[in-house]
Amino acid sequence: xxxxLAARDSSLSSVVLQELKAGxxxxxxxxxxxxxxxxxxxxxxxxxxxxxxxxxxxxxxxxLLDFIEQRAPGxxxxxxxxxxxxxxxxxxLQVVTDDMPFLVDTVSMVVVTQLQIHAxxxxxxxxxxxxxGKLTGIGAGGRAESIMHFEIDRVGGADEQAxxxxxxxxxxxxxxxxxxxxxxxxxxxxxLATELPQREFPADRxxxxxxxxxxxxxxxxxxxxxxxxxxxxxxxxxxxxxxxxDGSGLGILRKGERTLAxxxxxxxxxxxxxxxxxxxxxxxxxxxxxxxxxxxxxxDYIGVLQFDAAGKAVAEQRFLGLFTANAAMTRPQDVPLxxxxxxxx
Length: 345
Description:
alpha+beta; 7-stranded antiparallel β-sheet; 6-stranded antiparallel β-sheet
């Protein structure tokens, strides 16, 4: 930030603090408000700074400080406001949650499917809270929290607002689950890479080794892990189905897929999933479900198959996620599994 912008932000922050003081903020709350304003206006660009008058900014910041005063531990708080003043043509969408990756991308992705975004301000503050989630201070020594302020197209009725809030809350729950279990999912991929050579496989050993290299490659920041779950192949009413293993889910699959019923192999998007005759150690495909985290698009599906001594597929360990931008930029000749196909061609 250059000196001119820094001076403007400092001046706007000072004016807002004076307005808050005049509005009845106690000295104790003003100390936290000062830290909040510094973080908030550091994220306000020159154009966005002209969106509102200092008095309007003070009302907005004061409302945000009231909003973040209480939050249930481990959950995001989301609200939609319809101002009745000069901002009456827009709605305000505000979110407070523990700081973590993918937040602004995810909320934006939900909003833009329905509405246009006009401004985004995203300060990160250190918040101290008691065991009940009540804010006791803002500043050094607290836990990092993301405060997201979106100015969006007007959201009319209460039903529309409730639907938008529910969609955002669900998406942020997916973010929390994926981020919380990311290390565990990555460790699963690395453990499988080590385990594969000891498994029974109808495929040749070179293919198995290549599959292990692929799992190590995705673990090296080439795949955004969103979900993991284990399945066994079972017979049910004359059909071959994948039955989820209870307690094996991580990330967005921790609480089960959108359906808990066993699914026929014939109904799945990946037609080469574990069934008699499948010989690949790893199956790569796209799911028929879109990601709610980070960016839109159908999720990538990586299935690691397990075979019995007769060469029949009996289980699958499944990863859902998105290949990263880094993976997309990698030469095909440098990607395990893919490079063998390129060489063959």
